[in-house]
Amino acid sequence: MNIKKIVFSGIVTGAVGTGLGLVMLALAPVPYTGKPYQNLERTYVVIGGIAGLLIGSSQETIRQLKKQRDQEEAIADQLRQAKNNFMQLNPDQAHRIKHVEQDLR
């Protein structure tokens, strides 16, 4: 996995989340003046940034794992195809290969 891509994706989406937190402040100002609501603006920005960081990093990690899995499946398919081609070309040796495969299981 490419850690640089994961970190970059997390930072970019964290910035987007921070921007969304600022937009929330502009669209929904807090009408209350009590002590618990005094730092609510900063809380919106921090929560938006952290959520963006987590979502972006997770999404990029999943994307890279899927790409890796697809590559591994392609290699496995190529190996299966090569084995089938070999067995068709050499039917007398196919019996021995099947016997070895059964012993390995």
Distance between the termini: 31 Å
Order of helices and strands: HHH
What's the total number of strands? 0
Question: What's the structural domain tally?
Answer: 1
- Large-scale geometry: rod-shaped
Helical proportion, percent range: over 70%
Mean pLDDT: 85
**Class inferred from helices and paired strands:** mainly alpha
Number of helices: 3
Largest sheet: none
Rg (CA only): 27 Å
- Unreliable sequence segments: none
Itemize the secondary structure elements and their pairings.
Elements: H1 3-27, H2 40-89, H3 91-104
Short description:
This protein is mainly α and 105 residues long.
Task: Please explain how this structure is put together.
By secondary structure, this protein is mainly α. The chain has one domain (3-104). It has 3 helices and no strands. Helix 1 (3-27) packs antiparallel against helix 2 (40-89) and helix 2 crosses helix 3. The chain is rod-shaped, with a radius of gyration of 27 Å.
Keywords:
rod-shaped; 105 residues; mainly alpha
